[in-house]
Design goal:
2,3-Dihydroxybiphenyl 1,2-Dioxygenase, domain 1, 3 domains, eight-stranded mixed β-sheet, alpha-1,3-mannosyl-glycoprotein 2-beta-N-acetylglucosaminyltransferase, alpha-1,3-mannosylglycoprotein 2-beta-N-acetylglucosaminyltransferase activity
């Protein structure tokens, strides 16, 4: 593992991935509060079952006594009345059991991440996304699902109701909540989708954080997720919590087409907010929530006033991919840049991956060394090269910038000096990936460097001078 001596302490020890279970006493054993929470649902169910059994017993006893002494009431009427009462008690029991399980799940999941699934006007998209979430729920660190519906479109409401039943049947331990955001018209933005979208995002984030979750994963209703989507976020969460130079983590790579990615276990720092499936901490929300913008929330989050020099985490191989050709963005880049993003198909055993290299001091040193060791070439030259025939080690999640220290085992490493930010699109265009710049930062760049793989070659697009921008 790439790193220096002063960073030798494993991240698993420095930032434990699994916190000690809430409710344990100083010795590590369950305390009284923990015991009460753990057995609350079984006790409630036992009491309710006893009630139904008692009702049934009384019914049987009354019927067995024969006709009552009071005239006008025969045995059949009495039996029917008692049977109806027993049925009503059984129905009440079922409802109370579901409510008790949901309440218990919500309480137990306050220490885990909340998942805010944003829905509006696309019921088919929403169903596809929620079915993927249900199919890919993790074995541990299971999230509280909160579907935030913007408005009251009946078709969307019906999908949420149906999926809620499916979640309760397949994963009764997971809380599933359905909340509604009612749009209020504001002057100057009537009918403007980006304004409505921003208000909904801010409202939903606040609602889910108010439920006590330390982190919230945001998932829009047109995203497909990889098999290890949740495990990826569980893996990067300790780094995000520990490193104050990070603002959020995303599951998406803006230049994640198959031609530019290789290792499904690699994670990078980036100064560009990717969105499209991302996680925010309570600490960050406390800062951003009070000043949440009226519109264009994603570009707002990329501005220096919000970033304050902080970076984001993103994978080399995306854990999300959009299938929403129709939406607020009017499919501006869909066919050319979005539809062909590679969705990870090789689940990673994240518990065995050391992500210590993502901490800023270690990462910055490695970036400086890797770029310095790479061979400088024109963009046209590296585009024509093919390093795929060179020996390559298996994808292990080793430091993404350590190619310069491994004697070319990943093929050759090259750097392309793109000059000024204004000239960056020309260099990026030579490779054929998205080349736009927002708030002075090229997509995926960290300290001005865009890292990618191309035909087995490791490539760095670097700013003027051939080196990363100075550390901030």
């Amino acid at each position: 593992m790439f790193g220096s001596a002063d960073d030798s302490k494993p991240i698993a020890r420095r930032f434990p991935r699994r916190p000690v279970r809430a409710g344990k006493d100083a010795t590590g054993g369950p305390g009284v509060a923990s015991f009460a929470r753990a057995y609350r649902v079984p006790i409630m169910i036992a009491v309710l079952v006893a009630t139904v059994v008692t009702t049934a017993a009384v019914t049987s006893a009354l019927v067995s006594r024969g006709p009552p002494k009071r005239p006008g009431i025969d045995a059949a009427t009495l039996a029917g009345t008692c049977s109806a009462a027993a049925d009503k008690a059984r129905q009440d029991l079922a409802g109370l059991v579901v409510a008790a399980l949901s309440s218990s799940a919500s309480t137990q999941q306050q220490g885990s991440a909340g998942l805010a699934a944003l829905a509006s006007f696309a019921p088919a998209y929403l169903r596809r996304t929620l079915e993927a979430v249900l199919a890919r729920l993790p074995a541990t660190d299971r999230p509280h699902i909160v579907v935030s519906q913007d408005g009251h479109l009946p078709e969307v409401t019906a999908v949420v109701g149906d999926m809620q039943k499916q979640f309760r049947a397949a994963a009764p331990d997971i809380a599933f909540s359905h909340i509604h955001h009612t749009q209020s018209a504001e002057s100057g933005d009537d009918g403007f989708g980006y304004m409505k979208l921003s208000r909904h995002f801010g409202w939903a984030l606040g609602n889910v954080f108010d439920r006590g979750h330390p982190r919230v994963i945001v998932l829009e209703d047109d995203l497909e997720i990889a098999a290890d989507f949740f495990e990826y976020f569980s893996a990067v969460a300790p780094v995000l919590d520990a490193d104050s130079t990070l603002l959020a983590a995303s599951a998406y790579n803006d230049i994640g087409q198959p031609a530019f990615v290789a290792d499904s276990a690699r994670v990078y720092r980036s100064d560009f907010f990717p969105g499209l499936g991302w996680m925010l901490t309570r600490r960050a929300w406390a800062e951003l929530g009070p000043k949440w913008p009226r519109g264009f929330w994603d570009d707002w989050l990329r501005e220096p006033a919000q970033r304050k020099g902080r970076a984001f985490l993103r994978p080399e191989v995306s854990r999300t991919r959009t299938f929403g050709e129709r939406g607020v963005s009017q499919s501006q880049f869909f066919h050319q840049y979005l539809s062909n993003i590679k969705l990870n198909a090789e689940p990673v055993a994240w518990g065995s991956v050391d992500l210590q290299y993502l901490l800023k001091p270690t990462y910055d040193r490695a970036l400086d060394a890797a770029v310095a060791a790479a061979q400088g070439v024109p963009a046209s030259s590296v585009v024509a090269k093919d390093c795929s025939a060179l020996p390559r080690p298996p994808a292990t999640g080793s430091h993404p910038l350590s190619v310069a220290t491994r004697a070319g085992s990943l093929g050759a490493a090259f750097k392309v000096d793109y000059g000024s930010v204004g000239a960056y699109p020309r260099a990026a265009g030579a490779f054929g990936f998205i080349a736009d710049v927002k708030a002075g930062v090229p997509r995926t760049a960290y300290r001005g460097v865009v890292s990618l793989q191309h035909k087995g070659c490791f490539v760095y697009l670097v700013p003027a001078g051939g080196a990363p921008l100075p550390e901030r």
